[in-house]
Amino acid sequence: MRTSQLYLNTLKEAPSEAELTSHKLMVRAGLIKKLGSGLYTWMPLGMRVLRKVEEIVRDEMNAAGAQELLMPTIQPAELWQETGRWALFGPQMLKIKDRHERDFCFGPTHEEVITDIARSELRSYKQLPVNMYQVQVKFRDEIRPRFGVMRAREFVMKDAYSFDADFAGLQVSYGKMYTAYSNIFTRLGLKFRAVAADTGAIGGDGSHEFQVLADAGEDILAYAPDSDFAANVELAEALAPTTPRAAPAEAMRDIDTPKQTTCEAVAELMGVGIERTVKLIALVGGEAEEFFVVLLRGDHTLNEVKLAKAVGGEFRFATEEEIRAVFNCPPGFLGPIGLDTDNISVIADRSVAVMSDFVCGANKPKFHIAGVNFGRDLPEPNAVADIRNVVSGDPSPDGKGKLELCRGIEVGHIFQLRTKYSEAMNATYVAEDGQPKFFEMGCYGIGVSRIVAAAIEQNYDERGIIFTQAMAPFALAVVAVGYHRSEAVKTAADQLYADLKAAGVDVLLDDRNERPGSMFADMELIGIPHRITIGDKGLADGLVEYVARAGGEMQKIALADAVSFARKQLA
Amino acid sequence: MRTSQLYLNTLKEAPSEAELTSHKLMVRAGLIKKLGSGLYTWMPLGMRVLRKVEEIVRDEMNAAGAQELLMPTIQPAELWQETGRWALFGPQMLKIKDRHERDFCFGPTHEEVITDIARSELRSYKQLPVNMYQVQVKFRDEIRPRFGVMRAREFVMKDAYSFDADFAGLQVSYGKMYTAYSNIFTRLGLKFRAVAADTGAIGGDGSHEFQVLADAGEDILAYAPDSDFAANVELAEALAPTTPRAAPAEAMRDIDTPKQTTCEAVAELMGVGIERTVKLIALVGGEAEEFFVVLLRGDHTLNEVKLAKAVGGEFRFATEEEIRAVFNCPPGFLGPIGLDTDNISVIADRSVAVMSDFVCGANKPKFHIAGVNFGRDLPEPNAVADIRNVVSGDPSPDGKGKLELCRGIEVGHIFQLRTKYSEAMNATYVAEDGQPKFFEMGCYGIGVSRIVAAAIEQNYDERGIIFTQAMAPFALAVVAVGYHRSEAVKTAADQLYADLKAAGVDVLLDDRNERPGSMFADMELIGIPHRITIGDKGLADGLVEYVARAGGEMQKIALADAVSFARKQLA
C-alpha cells in the first residue's frame, strides 16, 4: 500500500488520561481512537495489526483441530440462571432488556451458550472430542476502564470450548490448546511464559495463564531462564535449602535497638546481612481463633496462599492488642524465644529452619537478640513449611537453574472446567456403556485486542512502537525522500515498490510530500520493523539505505539488490 | 478436511417454525442453530460459508480503496441525540444502560460514530476522499424475527462510509462502491440486480439496492434481460405507447353486466381482451380534499408513488359514500362519461390515453358501456401521466428490449447521504479556499449473513442446498464408499485427498463409516458443488465417479486423472 492511500493520522501528543506506554503509543500512532469510556475504534492501521493477530490465532486453532463457530453476542438470561451466574457475575455483566422486556446480556463469556449447544448437539461418545472456538467482541462493564485496549469494556476475544468423554480426554484437549497457545505467541514473536495459575471466577481444576513479559504487567511471575518453568509468584514453590543447619557458634546476646523495628534496620545497625535475621508474624487462625506465629527470614515475605494450605484453613493477622496480650511487648521487637509453645504453634519457613546463630526480636521493647539457635535457645519449630514468596536467585522448583522474577501481562488463559458447567446445565452424552455422562469441559481464552497492547509494552523505545514482523501493520516501509520533486526517486521508488509487492513483501511505500524527518518519525512511531530509504544522493551511486526498527547500524545496499536483501531480512 | 474431523450434524426434519426454504435447509444442514428468537449460532459448517463471503467482501472493498476499521458495537446515546435518531429509531434499537446508568445502544448502524470520527480526524480537503468499512455484528430488535438469518435480530453486516469534499467526489466514491458490490455478487456466483431504490430511513439522495433474485424475495423487481436496467417495480417507468390512438370505429352501446363489477369479469362476458377495458379509481387529494379520478387499463394496477408525484402531493381513496355522492352509482360500474370535468379532474394513465373504442363503467348500476372514445364521447383527460406499475412485457425504460418481473432479496444497499449527517453533527473539513465545508457522505451496507440465506433461496432443490463454488463450505467432496472395510478404497481415497489438497483444492474427504446413501445425502444437503465417489467396484477398473451438485450426468473418470479433472471442474 502507499501512504497516500492509507488512512494515517499520527499525533505528537498522547491524551493526558493515557497512563500506560502502550495506550499512549497506540493513540499517537493512530491505531485506536476513543469513542467513550472503555470503548475504542480500531482505526485502519490498528485494524491491520488486529487482523494479523486474529489470523495467526485462527490458523493455530484450526491446526489444533478446533473448529470456528460464531455464537450470538446477545444471550438469554435463562441460560445464565441455570448456572447461577446471572446473579454471580455482578455489574460487570451488561444486562439488557429487549423490546418485549425479556432479560438478556451482552455476553462477557460463552460457557452457558456452548454448553446449551453441546447438550442438544452432542449425544454420543462417538461425536467426542469436540473443540469449538470463536473470535468475537465481548463486553465487560469494568467499573473503571483504563489503559486503552488493555482493559477496555468492549474487546476482541478468542474463546474456545472443548468437550470430552472423560478426564483423560480433557487432558489431551487441554494439552493441544497449551501447545496451540505456545505456537501462537511464538509466531507473534513475543517473549511469554505459560504459568500455572489459580482458576479464579471461571472455576474448575487445572489452569494456565499465558503472560507476555513486560515491565508494565500487573502480575509478578517467577520463571527459570534455563527451563520452561514459570509460575505466578504466589504459586512458585520455594525449595528447602539443601545445605543442613550449621552447629551453634555464637552465644546469645541482647542487641540495643532503640529505634530499629525492622529486620533491615537491625541488620544495618549490626552490620550483618539481612539473611541472618528472622522475623516473627503473629496470626490468628480458624474458627477457634487460635493464636499462632510464623517465622520468616528477614528478607522474605509471607505467602498467604501457601500458609493457608500449610495450616489447612483461613487465618488473619493478629491485632496489636492480641499481640501485646501474648508477648507483653509491642510489635517491632517480637521473637520466638520464651513462647508458650504448648499453646502457641510456631511454623517456620523452610529457610528459617536451617538457620543458626540468627538475630530476632527479644520480646522486650527496644531490644533484639543475636546468636539465637533452635534446640539450644528455643524448641524446634512445631512445623516447617514453604510459606514464603520466592525471590530472584531461588533454585527453580524443576531443578533447572535459578528463578528470576519479572512482570507479565495476561493475554491467554486456559482452564480445565471439568464438569462444573455440564453438571449445572445437565449436559450429558451417552457413553460407550449406554449410560449418560457429564461432559468433561475445558475453556480457552485469548485477549486478541489486548495482545496488541501487550506486545507494545514489551517492545517500544523513545521513538515509538517496535512491532514484531508478524504483527506489524506492514513488514517493510520504503521511504521515498523527494518523491514529489525528483523523477529519479519517484521512478526508483515505484519500481522497488512494485518489485517488492511482486515478491510477496507486505510493503508500505511512503510517497507523501513531507519532510524526510517527519516521514521517518511516522514510520518509527507506527513500528514498521524494516525500512528502506531512497533518496537522490544515494541513487546517484545506485544505493539505498536499510535500517531495522529494532536497532542496528544503517546499511547501504545496491538498489539492484534491494528486493533480495529485503527478503532475507524478512525471512 | 475429513468428515471425521468436521463437526457435521445434519437433520432429517426442519423445525416446524421454519417457513422459508433457506431457513429449513440451513438448520437441516447444520449451518446454523437457534439460541433464541432471532438469535442464531453459526455452527462450524455455516461459519466456513460465512467467512468465505466475508473474505470476498473484504477483498473487493480493499480493491476499491476502502479501508477496514472496527468501531465499537456499544455506542453512547449522546451521538444519536445529535442527529435526533435516538428518538427516531424506535424500539428496533436495543437501548442499554451501563453500570453507571449512562445510556448506550447496541449499534444498529454506525453513521453517528463514523461522522464523529471524521469530524475530529479529517480536517483538510487533502485527506479526502476517505472510505472506511467494517465487518461487524449488528443488532436490530425486530418485533417479529423470522426466516432464520434472513431477518434475524443479530446479524453480520459490512458497513462502509465515504467522505468526500464535494458532490462530484461523492459520485465517484459511490460509483466505486457500485462496482465493488457488483464484483462481490458476481464473484459469489449469484444472479442479482442493482436497482434504483427509495432511500428509506437512512436518508439522503441517490440509492441502489442490490437484490439477489429468488422466488421467495419480498421485493418485486422489473428488469430488462437484454440490459443492465433494473428497478423496484414501484419505481420503473412505464413508457408511453409509441403507437398513436386509433380513430373511433364503434358506436357507444350499453352492455348488460348484472353481476360483472370488475374489468376482468366484463371482458370475459363480452369475449374481449381485458386490455380493451378501462377502470376508474376515485380519489381525494390534498388538504383541500379535492375529489378526482384516475383511469387505468383494466389489466394495470395503480402505482401510488407515481401518482403522488403526478399530482404533487398526498391523496387517499374515496369512500363509498363520497363515490355515491358524486356518481350516484355504486363502485363496480363507474366510468368517466358524463363527469363534471370542470370540477373533477381526470388523470389518465399513458396507456389509457391512446385507447379507442374502449369499455368502461356506465355510471349506472349493472351496466357498462362499450365503444367509448375520448374527444367524441367524453373530453380528453385533464392530464396524462405514468401512474401504473409496469408489467412483464412492457418496453424497458432504457429502450433495450422488454421488461420482466421477478422477486428479489435485498442483500446490499448503497446510499448517497450527502450532508444529512455532517450537517446534523457539524462535521466539517477545511476546503481548498480555507472555508469549513460539510462532508459529502455515502454509506454502503451488505448483509453478510443474509447473503448466505439469499444464495440458498436462489439455488436449492429437493435434496438440499446447491452452493456456488465461491460460497460452498468445501468445493469438492470425495466420498469414500467402504473406507472402513476396504483397504483399496482407503488407500485410494487417502491418496486422492492428499493429492487434491496439495493441488490447492478445498476438499472434504467423507471418511465416515456410514451407508453410501446417507453420505451422498449429507453431501447433497450441505450443497457441496462437486463430488467424486470412490468405491471398490470402480477401483477394480481404476475408475472413480464424478457428479456435479447442480445437475448433469454422472461421469466415470480414471482415478489417475481425478486431480486434473477436478481442477478443470473447479477452474
TrEMBL record, chains A, B:
<keyword id="KW-0067">ATP-binding</keyword>
<dbReference type="InterPro" id="IPR044140">
    <property type="entry name" value="ProRS_anticodon_short"/>
</dbReference>
<dbReference type="Pfam" id="PF03129">
    <property type="entry name" value="HGTP_anticodon"/>
</dbReference>
<comment type="subunit">
    <text>Homodimer.</text>
</comment>
<dbReference type="Pfam" id="PF04073">
    <property type="entry name" value="tRNA_edit"/>
</dbReference>
<dbReference type="InterPro" id="IPR002314">
    <property type="entry name" value="aa-tRNA-synt_IIb"/>
</dbReference>
<protein>
    <recommendedName>
        <fullName>Proline--tRNA ligase</fullName>
        <ecNumber>6.1.1.15</ecNumber>
    </recommendedName>
</protein>
<comment type="function">
    <text>Catalyzes the attachment of proline to tRNA(Pro) in a two-step reaction: proline is first activated by ATP to form Pro-AMP and then transferred to the acceptor end of tRNA(Pro). As ProRS can inadvertently accommodate and process non-cognate amino acids such as alanine and cysteine, to avoid such errors it has two additional distinct editing activities against alanine. One activity is designated as 'pretransfer' editing and involves the tRNA(Pro)-independent hydrolysis of activated Ala-AMP.</text>
</comment>
<dbReference type="InterPro" id="IPR006195">
    <property type="entry name" value="aa-tRNA-synth_II"/>
</dbReference>
<dbReference type="InterPro" id="IPR007214">
    <property type="entry name" value="YbaK/aa-tRNA-synth-assoc-dom"/>
</dbReference>
<keyword id="KW-0030">Aminoacyl-tRNA synthetase</keyword>
<dbReference type="InterPro" id="IPR023717">
    <property type="entry name" value="Pro-tRNA-Synthase_IIa_type1"/>
</dbReference>
<keyword id="KW-0547">Nucleotide-binding</keyword>
<feature type="domain" description="Aminoacyl-transfer RNA synthetases class-II family profile">
    <location>
        <begin position="33"/>
        <end position="473"/>
    </location>
</feature>
<dbReference type="InterPro" id="IPR045864">
    <property type="entry name" value="aa-tRNA-synth_II/BPL/LPL"/>
</dbReference>
<dbReference type="InterPro" id="IPR004154">
    <property type="entry name" value="Anticodon-bd"/>
</dbReference>
<comment type="similarity">
    <text>Belongs to the class-II aminoacyl-tRNA synthetase family. ProS type 1 subfamily.</text>
</comment>
<keyword id="KW-0436">Ligase</keyword>
<dbReference type="InterPro" id="IPR036621">
    <property type="entry name" value="Anticodon-bd_dom_sf"/>
</dbReference>
<dbReference type="Pfam" id="PF00587">
    <property type="entry name" value="tRNA-synt_2b"/>
</dbReference>
<dbReference type="InterPro" id="IPR050062">
    <property type="entry name" value="Pro-tRNA_synthetase"/>
</dbReference>
<keyword id="KW-0648">Protein biosynthesis</keyword>
<dbReference type="InterPro" id="IPR004500">
    <property type="entry name" value="Pro-tRNA-synth_IIa_bac-type"/>
</dbReference>
<dbReference type="GO" id="GO:0016874">
    <property type="term" value="F:ligase activity"/>
</dbReference>
<keyword id="KW-0963">Cytoplasm</keyword>
<dbReference type="InterPro" id="IPR036754">
    <property type="entry name" value="YbaK/aa-tRNA-synt-asso_dom_sf"/>
</dbReference>
<dbReference type="InterPro" id="IPR002316">
    <property type="entry name" value="Pro-tRNA-ligase_IIa"/>
</dbReference>
<dbReference type="InterPro" id="IPR033730">
    <property type="entry name" value="ProRS_core_prok"/>
</dbReference>
